[in-house]
Fold these 4 entries.
Entry 1:
Amino acid sequence: TLLVLQHIACEPPAAYEDELRAWGIELHRVMVDELPLPEWRDYAGIIAMGGPMGAYDEDRLPWLAAEKQLIADAVSADTPFWGACLGAQLLAAALGAAVFAGPAAEVGVLPVQTTPAAAADPVFSECPREFRALQWHGDTFELPDGAALLARSEAYEQQAFVRGRAYGLQFHIEIDAALTAEWADVPAYADSLRRTLGADALPWLISEVRAREREMTALARRLFARWLGEVVGIEPRSAEANAKAKARYAPL
């Protein structure tokens, strides 16, 4: 069973969850602001998703401190970790790096480039040198000590990194157009969209995601399958699931 730390209802693991279920792997989802955090040692790995808050908002949201401590303890014990957007920022903060507001929000379906370090990584070696991903964030972070940078974008240098068995991805490749529309109902997201792309940008952004959602979610499942198999070290629970997972391992 994997532990999913979710911060808002409209940011589930999405395509990552689809891959988990295809493998026959159970997940335990917690909304971190609603109940005490579970014992992380009971899980084979941890997935932390996005949210509208900042990783530095402990004064406003005291539960963030407990979540970052959980991540720090788990990662120091070599527990596999996969963080998306806020999840990546929380990982960076838990590893002692600064998380802060960037010069401008990065919003849109935009190019991301892998770094030379990605070619030797068991997960990101399966990634194209450039791909499109949904960006919808205003915060960024420093690269934690001992981490390897795996991807960057024109606007923000830190797009993906790994330290040990812990991965942080600033971008979104796991969601589709329907979830994108739900995000627009979150005031913080709607505000960043309006300030960055204009008051009428939502239909355009949804169409951009819809045009790319098949390739983005396929890449999400491909990378996540590599993480499950090569980093977490588990196998699909059925022959059919195993065959499909291995097909996604085939070189691009």
Entry 2:
Amino acid sequence: MTTALDLITGAAKLIGVLNKGENMAADDAADGLVSLNDMIESWSNNGLLVYARTIETFSLVAGTASYTIGSGQTWNTTRPIRIISAQIRDGANLDFPVKIINDEEYYNVQDKGSQSPYPEYLNFSNAHPYPVIKFWGTPSQAYTARLVSEKVLSSFALTSTTVDLPSGWKRAIRFNLAVEMAPEYGVKVDPVVLDKADESLGLIKSAVLKTRPLLSTDPNFGQRDNIYTGYYS
């Protein structure tokens, strides 16, 4: 098991600001934690670095097409970064797929208030601070929405608590955090460290990519597959 302090200390040694056997000063450790969490939050925007997707269910209200989603919102959960897929489940526990459309496609829908036995499309408006999920057509009954989403990777706390990381993540964080921290100390990163940072991150992306489904397109909305992140955008 590993702690955040272990990762920060290891990164500091890679750029030569700590020697073997030395411990980090409290203020340097605090700065390193900021860099670590900033880096992890940034990685969350890359679908190939989100190693697990979240499956959740939410209640629809008959006649209501829009729902805010996030902590304390109508759909109370951790804010998603993107919605990967969606289904509508009826009272007989039958699931009906819902197509994900982007903002432009949703805005081009003329009759946004029309009702439908089952919603056919879902638009995820990634607004700040709270996103809005909009369905078309408006559900005629109180169905259940099942969403598969990607969310921000968990942040770290600078305590003695250990963290359980997937295979390869400890190495990737340590080498990439070294690159992240180097400018604060005014040091140049050794090319070997740069290579290992790129290599370790690439291995994580490859592992995640193997768990993703094959790309597909919807001819109604044109070619929008993203070969770099592996999902229909």
Entry 3:
Amino acid sequence: DAVILESFGVGGIPTYDSGDFHKSIEDLVRTGKTVVMTTQVTNEGSNMSVYEVGKSIKKEFDLLEAYDMTLEAVITKLMWLMGREEQDMQKAFYTQINHDILFTKRG
């Protein structure tokens, strides 16, 4: 029910002439999956507004962004929220629980 994508650096994601990655994200969102973008960089956090491709993907598909949450925190929070059948996943995801997410506004 949820997919977590790990970006390069603070928000770089692959772009291909075929549009395969874009199409995959579109398919996930269209089928009702919750999609969260995080980063492979452990101490930096995500900032999808740094690169144009990340900015446009986030805007087009209204993805959730992990910002300073660790991958482990994102997984745990999503599991907890999905178990509660949250009506407003975005609001619930960005609600701080035990200091899991501190910074949510960028760019």
Entry 4:
Amino acid sequence: MRVFVFLNGRQSSAQFYRKHYESCREKGDAVICANGGYRLAQQCGIEPDLLIGDLDSLHDEQIEKGIEVRRYPRNKDL
């Protein structure tokens, strides 16, 4: 099983990530998005299995129904 993790930050084109994902994925692989990495997955047309983080850069209405969400407090520096 492979796990594809989408993060926020400097990115190549969505086409680059989509092509890599399609060439490597196998049945049973998982997709995890951390915070703003969810937007990149959306641009690639990839639905994550899990969205994790404080999600302060996303609005709840932007998150598709059916995606497991693990939300952590913004005050995470402790």
